[in-house]
Design goal:
heterodimer; A: ten-stranded mixed β-sheet; globular; B: about 250 residues; alpha/beta; Rossmann fold; four-stranded antiparallel β-sheet; 10 helices; 12 strands; binds adenosine-5'-diphosphate; binds magnesium ion
């Protein structure tokens, strides 16, 4: 069934600027299927329920709106972390700037290499989780990515990776329109940490598909930023086997438009998924719109899921949270938790939240909460009465507010790194 | 040290006058006590002196060592030497007690153009002072006042006062909710800070705190005014006869 005509035109316009990458037959087939999904759904419009709070126009349009490259002498996140660096410049892998891709416990390849091979395990993952993630809600930008992204990284964790794999996205061209597609497969008992940072491009589309087998563990820590004018639409699709772990944290600082979607399916018993985000936006530097859209499906017994999202906004910044926990009939003993909170530092900033629970099993424990609040004036006065200047006192309270999300980062070193980055940003902002 | 002249204060939100002409001077080295029934305006006076929002000063002034306090931001008043031990210390989840204290100490030093305290030096000093107030290391690590008992909160106020070494200490009902032992600790903490160049304004509802912190001057406040001023014997009189007689006299 074709999409209603009103949506078709923007899609045609968009497609006219893109060309399908070449690859092995199975890869081209997967891309063709993604194009069919996209043709069926069309690009999202403002009238779509799922895009009620975020305007997709600039993500849909054929050419990326220009974004000035943000120059800073700040240390990049994770600079002090011992890691394997993989660098992309405006969405293109930079072998020279990257470390050697070999490391114990993991096999790392470039996506284009994997997709050129006639026989490759990626066949069972590329576009597969993205497709599963299209029901019950369509995610057209993810299908577009599968159909047209030619670069990315493919990670096969077969053991315990000795250090994190750090994906660094540099933005150098004002007009860059980048698409990356990553695949991560974590074998039983294996464990890998993926770090991501950098603005990536003027407009950035990124899909990561993560398959975690029984007893596998996947960790993800991301620092998005720092360019004020960049736009990003990212998707993480994950599927977990039994006794598996998926933990993802994202810090977002600035960005005219960011939509981060996470779609996680728990299909094996006793698994754990934690998804957290801390966003700080100041629209004094240009518009700030940040959207976290999360969909967790419990389809197994005794799994735990946590969603912890905190946003601090000022000067007319906009925050959105759409989070859902779906508990299927057989997913007994589900423990689901979801919290989304915003701290608005003035009356111009807004937070819109749509928390949802849909539960078909009877023996479950699920809770969700969403709050919007201003700074606690009594606490602020208490701090100031001790001599702490108002801006520093505010920052102390901002950090306190974000703490619950940041504490979701399991690794102490990475947690300290994210905190230092946030602290640095707050300090700089005060000047 | 502190001069309050004809201070009139109303609430910003409603047109309600709370302080109706307060005159009070606290000399350096002296302890002044303010006693008075509930609702007489004692806390309001302490808040207005430390710079809390929500109040309009319609008349009068307040000077600290000759400097006009009322135009300053709360943090500048603190750096200038004003300290208020709150009647109800505020809980601040997520902000560590130590982080808060060190930030405060160093912010004040910076504002005064003094050198900041190093982490090591701060730790040493704070541990020493905490020990004399029987505040354990665990309490220092917790978020500001979160999960503290009433007595712990009040001791924490005195610890902050000891660390910040203010010129003018205002204590608002620091004795309320304290048992005898805790009161003794708090009083010892305050007495340890008494010095020829520091003034104290001790607000209390009861005379018993003044057994431990000997005041030089006692004021009785009622209906937003100081209605009587005297020596320590005035506190004993209140203890015996209550406020009724004094208020009748004052009118
Ligand atoms: N923020 C406020 N809103 C409304 N009423 C207030 C406020 N602050 C003080 N008041 C009123 O002002 C009067 C004095 O209060 P307060 O200063 O707390 O007295 P005290 O400390 O002597 O008990 C009381 O009648 C109290 O209800
Ligand atoms: Mg009071």
């Amino acid at each position: 069934m074709a999409a209603p005509a009103v949506k078709q035109d923007p899609l045609e316009a968009r497609l006219s600027t893109l060309s399908a990458p070449k690859g092995a037959a199975w890869a081209e087939e997967a891309r063709a299927e993604a194009r069919s999904r996209l043709a069926a759904s069309g690009l999202p419009g403002r009238r779509d329920e799922y895009w009620k709070f975020t305007d997709p126009t600039s993500l849909n349009q054929p050419d990326a709106p220009r974004a000035a490259v943000f120059a800073t002498d700040e240390a990049m996140p994770f600079s002090d972390v011992d890691r394997l660096k993989i660098v992309f410049v405006d969405g293109v892998f930079d072998a020279e700037a990257s470390d050697d891709l070999s490391m114990a416990g993991v096999e790392i390849e470039r996506l284009s290499d994997a997709l050129n091979r006639d026989i490759h395990w990626a066949r069972d993952l590329f576009g597969v989780l993205e497709e599963r993630g299209q029901t019950p809600v369509v995610r057209p930008h993810a299908a577009l990515n599968t159909a047209f992204a030619s670069d990315g990284i493919v990670i096969h964790a077969t053991g315990r990776a000795p250090k994190p794999i750090s994906l660094i996205y540099l933005h150098k061209s004002e007009a860059s329109d980048a698409m990356l597609h990553h695949l991560v497969k974590v074998e039983p008992g294996a464990e890998v940490t993926v770090l991501e940072n950098g603005p990536a491009a003027a407009r950035f589309s990124k899909v990561t598909e993560v398959e975690v087998a029984d007893t596998g563990r996947f960790h993800h820590v991301r620092a998005q930023g720092r360019d004020h004018e960049r736009r990003a639409s990212t998707h993480m699709f994950a599927r977990l086997g039994a006794n598996a772990t998926y933990k993802s944290f994202t810090l977002t600082v600035n960005g005219v438009l960011t939509r981060n979607e996470q779609v996680v399916e728990l299909v094996g018993d006793d698994s754990t998924v934690h998804i957290a985000g801390a966003a700080v936006g100041d629209a004094a530097y240009g518009a700030f719109h940040h959207d976290d859209t999360v969909f967790v499906t419990h389809d197994a017994v005794n799994c735990e899921s946590r969603q912890v999202f905190k946003k601090v906004m000022r000067n007319g910044a906009e925050g959105v949270f759409q989070g859902k926990i779906l508990v299927k009939p057989d997913a007994q003993k589900t423990d689901g938790y979801q919290i989304s909170q915003s701290l608005l530092l003035d009356d111009d900033s807004v937070f819109q939240a749509k928390p949802e629970l849909e539960i078909y099993a009877d023996d479950v424990q699920c809770s969700h909460g969403s709050t919007t609040g201003a700074i606690d004036e009594d606490a602020l006065f208490y701090l100031r009465s001790r001599g702490v200047p108002e801006d520093i006192a505010t920052d102390l309270m901002v950090l306190a507010f974000l703490a619950e999300a940041i504490e979701e980062i399991e690794d102490e070193g990475l947690r300290a790194d994210i905190l230092a980055r946030l602290q640095g940003w707050l300090d700089r902002r005060r000047g | 040290m502190l001069e309050i002249k004809n201070l009139h204060v109303s609430l910003e939100e409603e047109d309600k006058q709370i302080l109706k002409g307060v005159d009070l001077t606290v000399e350096a080295g002296k302890v002044h006590a303010i006693m008075g029934p509930n609702g007489s305006g004692k806390s309001t006076l302490s808040y207005v002196l430390s710079g809390k929002g929500g109040y309009d000063v319609t008349e009068g002034e307040a000077l600290l060592a000759g400097e006009n306090l009322l135009d300053m931001d709360p943090e500048d008043r603190a750096a200038a030497g004003v300290f208020l031990a709150f009647q109800y210390p505020v809980e601040i989840p997520g902000v560590g007690n130590m982080t808060f204290l060190r930030t405060a100490v160093n912010a004040q030093r910076k504002a005064r153009g003094e050198e900041e305290m190093s982490a090591a030096e701060f730790l040493k000093v704070v541990r020493e002072k905490a020990k004399t107030l029987k505040i354990d290391a665990e309490m220092l690590k917790r978020p500001v006042n979160v999960g503290f008992s009433g007595g712990e909160k009040k001791r924490n106020e005195i610890l902050q006062m000891a660390m910040l070494e203010p010129k003018m200490c205002i204590l608002d009902e620091t004795d309320s909710g304290l048992d005898v032992d805790a009161m003794k600790l708090v009083a010892d903490g305050v007495n340890a800070l008494r010095s020829p160049d520091r003034g104290f304004l001790v607000i209390t509802h009861y005379q018993r705190l003044l057994d431990h912190i000997q005041p030089d001057v006692v004021h009785i406040m009622a209906g937003g005014r100081i209605i009587k001023t005297g020596g320590p014997e005035l506190a004993l009189e209140v203890e015996k006869n209550g406020y009724a007689d004094l208020m009748a006299e004052g009118v």
